[in-house]
Amino acid sequence: MVxxxxxxxxxxxxxxxxxxxxxxxxxxxDNLVMSKASQLLKPxxxxxxxxxxxxxxxxxxxxxxxxxxxxxxxxxxxLFTLVGIALTLFLVHRxxxxxxxxxxxxxxxxxxxSVIAGLLLMAPLWLALKEYIVFGITxxxxxxxxxxxxxxxxxxxxxxxxxxxxxxxxxxxxxLCFRQMAISIFRRRSTQIVVCVVMAILFGTLHVRNFPGxxxxxxxxxxxxxxxxxxxxxxxxxxGSNLASTLLAVxxxxxxxxxxxxxxxxxxxxxxxxxxxxxxxxxxxxxxLRKK
Length: 292
What we know:
The protein is mostly helical. It has helices spanning about 1-40, 45-60, 70-100, 115-140, 155-170, 170-185, 190-205, 210-230, 230-255, 270-290; strands at about 145-150, 260-265, 265-270. It starts with a helix and ends with a helix.
């Protein structure tokens, strides 16, 4: 009986030590593999993020590939985009921090509602400034032929339908792909800014007819992301800019102002009334941001 009492400890202790040894060895191998993968993938991540973003955006845009996709096509685009957002959030929140620990410095925590509201209010002024900057730069290189901007009822209806995706879904997906995934893995601020420029060029290239405006927007969204260390700041500014564009379409359709546009590149110049209103909205936005 005395010997039987000692049988279990004699067997259990070596087995426990074996499991501890295997666990430590597995952790070492796992960390080594992750470290090697991180070193290999890190320089390529901006390009890989852009390729991933282009692929996701292309898939989500398939249902609206025709001239008049209608409500069914837009609904499928909303569904595909939601799936893309869920997949990208999983990659950003679960996978990327394991491979690149530096990604943890940019958490996905939602800011206060006052911050979101402030950025949304500042977005119309940013949109107006961007259009005038692009107009000024482009006019230095070539002669720009402007024409009055007008909307038919059918065009406005299509714009309002597509604005659901442009305001509520596309900004989040694009910011996650072109800002969060590409920039957050780098610790140095200088490297983050370089990657921001690279991603802005790639983002602008996707918007062939509006490269200058898309490049400027991507630069601002990227710098806001780097400064705030929170992707929701960029998402709010991006969504607010798209919302302002939709409201300008309604403004033109109602014939409340005189706006000019050119198609190559796409430039829409708001009139003085829009600029003044945007300025007052931006002041209100700054007040809200200071309360954070």
